[in-house]
């Protein structure tokens, strides 16, 4: 899984500009589910090139640490930190094997769990995330929507197309998706059911597990109108997931 993101990182992906990404849907939904990070210590895992890691710092977190399995992604993140220092530390590691980096109020992960290749791998990730949280701390993530339907509208005009999505996917089905960046990118990940996510999170010690459907930001509504977003909101490709230690 690191190799595909090393290639994406090397292309300096312009994936933040996709309508579904941080400005209109994903960032808006994610930060609403997260709540305030003011004066909190945050660990952002699967941080990629630091798109959200930097936003967490800008939103008032006391400290932010980013972790990603891809050396190329972390190289990009560190380059941006060198260009515009925010005091963010970055580490290369598989979240499943990450060494203890501290004790955090919040752990965030915008797309990590779909890259678990088995429930056991997801459990090792979630146990390690749990170990990095203070008692009462929160894990807030953005995960592939377990209820995404092949019969519903695809998300192409929002920037991402699921390729050959099965009508009745089995748990752990490998999915391909095309991101409609300037140079289109194909990514592979795994589809896990709601039950698998929740069982793994409970086995890792988490409680109060809640899913939040995506919403469109006021900026997105003003720019494109509600009708534009309706297909996406009816069959979103991802959802926010929040739980506590
Ligand atoms: C779709 S990208 C999202 C990056 C960033 N969170 C964002 O939203 O821009 C998913 C990231 O997960 C990372 N990743 C996948 N599996 C991982 C693992 N086991 N441990 C750490 N990072 C992982 C990839 O290298 C990639 O950077």
SSE layout:
Elements (H helix, E strand, L loop, with lengths): L1 H9 L15 H9 L6 E5 L5 H8 L4 E6 L2 H13 L5 E4 L11 E7 L8 H13 L1 E12 L15 E4 L9 E7 L5 E7 L2 H10 L3 E6 L5 H7 L1 H9 L3 E7 L1
Parallel strand pairs: 1-2, 1-4, 2-3, 4-5
Antiparallel strand pairs: 5-10, 6-7, 7-8, 9-10
Helix pairs in contact: 1-4, 5-6
What does it look like?
Helices cover 32% and strands 27% of the residues. With 245 residues, the chain is an alpha/beta fold. The chain has a single domain, classed as Vaccinia Virus protein VP39 (Rossmann fold, 3-Layer(aba) Sandwich), CATH 3.40.50.150. The protein has a 7-stranded mixed beta sheet, sandwiched between helices. A 3-stranded antiparallel beta sheet has the order 6-7-8. The two termini are 27 Å apart. S-adenosylmethionine is lined by residues 1-2, 5, 45-48, 51-52, 68-70, 73, 94-96, 110-112, 115.
């Amino acid at each position: 899984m690191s190799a595909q993101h090393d290639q994406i990182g090397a292309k300096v992906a312009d994936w933040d500009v996709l309508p579904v990404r941080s400005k209109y849907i994903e960032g808006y939904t994610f930060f609403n589910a997260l709540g305030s990070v003011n004066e909190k210590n945050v660990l952002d895992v699967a941080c990629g090139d630091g798109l959200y890691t930097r936003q967490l710092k800008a939103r008032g977190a006391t400290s932010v640490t980013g972790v990603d399995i891809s050396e190329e992604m972390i190289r990009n993140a560190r380059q941006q930190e060198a260009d515009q220092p925010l005091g963010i530390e970055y580490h290369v590691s598989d979240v499943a094997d990450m060494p203890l980096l501290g004790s955090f109020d919040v752990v965030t992960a915008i797309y990590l769990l779909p890259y678990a290749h088995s429930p056991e791998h997801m459990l090792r990730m979630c146990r390690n995330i749990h170990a990095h949280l203070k008692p009462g701390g929160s894990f807030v993530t953005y995960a592939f929507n377990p209820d995404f339907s092949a019969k519903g509208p695809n998300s192409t005009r929002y920037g991402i197309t699921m390729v050959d999505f099965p009508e009745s996917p089995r748990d752990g089905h490998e999915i391909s998706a095309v991101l409609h960046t300037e140079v289109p990118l194909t990514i592979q990940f795994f589809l896990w059911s709601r039950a698998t996510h929740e069982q793994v999170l409970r086995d890792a010690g988490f409680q109060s597990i809640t899913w939040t459907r995506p919403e469109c930001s006021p900026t997105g509504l003003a720019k494109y109108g509600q009708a534009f977003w309706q297909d996406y909101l009816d069959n979103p490709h991802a959802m926010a997931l929040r739980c506590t230690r």
